[in-house]
Amino acid sequence: MKRKQKVLVTGAGGFIGHHLVSYLKKKGYRVRGVDIKYPEYKPTDADEFFKLDLREKNNAFKATEGMNHVYALAADMGGMGYISANHATILYNNATINFNTMEGARVNKVSRYFYSSSACIYPEYRQTKAKMKPLKEEDAFPAQPQDAYGWEKLVTEILAKYYREEYGIETRIARFHNIFGPFGTWDGGREKAPAAICRKIATAKLMGKKEIEIWGDGKQTRSFCYIDDCLEGIYKLMLSDFPDPLNIGQDRMVTVDQLVDIISEIAGVELKKIHVAGPQGVRGRNSDNSKLRKVLKWEPGISLEQGLVKTYQWIEEQVSNKLNK
């Protein structure tokens, strides 16, 4: 695969997209970033950045014009609090964004297209207990995602398959499992669990509090993948010959309470957990990486603790800055 090609990253103002722009620049690509907003915490490394709303078809066509590859990460998303309260908005916005972008790629003769799907596509009936079998790619059907966010992701996976078969675009699909790291949303309601817990612990530490609130009973389980591993997986998958959906995530499952304990130790504090009612998502979810190892001869190698050290340090700095304003 030649370098110095022109690539588009949609969602380049968001967490994963912002990191991906920097990653691809280091690989030698000419990168165009597109989003409705600029990155919030650090300037973009993109060669050019278009501030565009991809819900408008003309904008999607403009974004994809002249591009060799597209990395489609643009989405209306957030943590469980946001996802569970905005089903219609999310389904409409994300379907419109993805349908327009994929059609723009077809019209503009993009040769290779990466779609960022999610573990949220997996059926609820496979995630009803905290200790469930890790999710394999073939577990997606019979379909029963928990929410509109998952349904839209699954439908767009199918659209990508048909665009590949009918139009010859080399589509690649990754199902992300809880990606985390610095320079991502950490407050305001759209943040995901690792960032939210880092924020709560940092706030308690800096304000001298001895307890934090946790949604649910703390026994719900997830696996969490650090951003640097996610980027490596995206790139390897994009350049591979594998056209079907593939999990990208860690396969180490922890409870939310364990996640709190790990971050508390990193922060150097002991806090009492107060469990309260709140959106929790599915009861248990973990990635089966068997196919990932077979297809890419690779799997994430950064430990949860290593990733959380970097993430917590950055979020504590943000919390401190906010408290001192």
Helices, strands, pairings?
Blueprint: E1 6-10, H1 15-26, E2 30-35, E3 48-51, H2 57-64, E4 69-72, H3 80-83, H4 87-107, E5 112-118, H5 148-167, E6 170-176, E7 179-180, H6 193-207, E8 211-215, E9 221-222, E10 225-226, H7 227-238, E11 246-248, E12 254-255, H8 256-267, E13 272-276, H9 290-296, H10 304-323
Parallel strand pairs: 1-2, 1-4, 2-3, 4-5, 5-6, 6-11, 7-10, 8-13
Antiparallel strand pairs: 9-12
In short:
The protein is α/β, with parallel strands linked by helices. It is built from ten helices and 13 strands. This is NAD-dependent dehydratase.
N- to C-terminal distance:
49 Å
Listing every helix as H and every strand as E from the N terminus to the C terminus, the arrangement reads EHEEHEHHEHEEHEEEHEEHEHH
Q: What's the story with the biggest beta sheet? A: 7 strands, parallel
Side by side, the strands of the main sheet go 3-2-1-4-5-6-11
Name the beta content range.
15-25%
Rg calc: 19 Å
How would you describe the overall organization of this protein?
With 325 residues, this protein is an alpha/beta fold. The protein folds into 2 domains: 6-179 and 225-248, Rossmann fold (3-Layer(aba) Sandwich), CATH 3.40.50.720; 181-222 and 252-284 and 302-323, UDP-galactose 4-epimerase, domain 1 (Alpha-Beta Complex). The chain is 40% helix and 17% strand. Helix 8 (256-267) packs across helix 10. The radius of gyration is 19 Å and the shape is globular. It holds the Pfam family Epimerase. It comes from Candidatus Daviesbacteria bacterium RIFCSPHIGHO2_02_FULL_41_10.
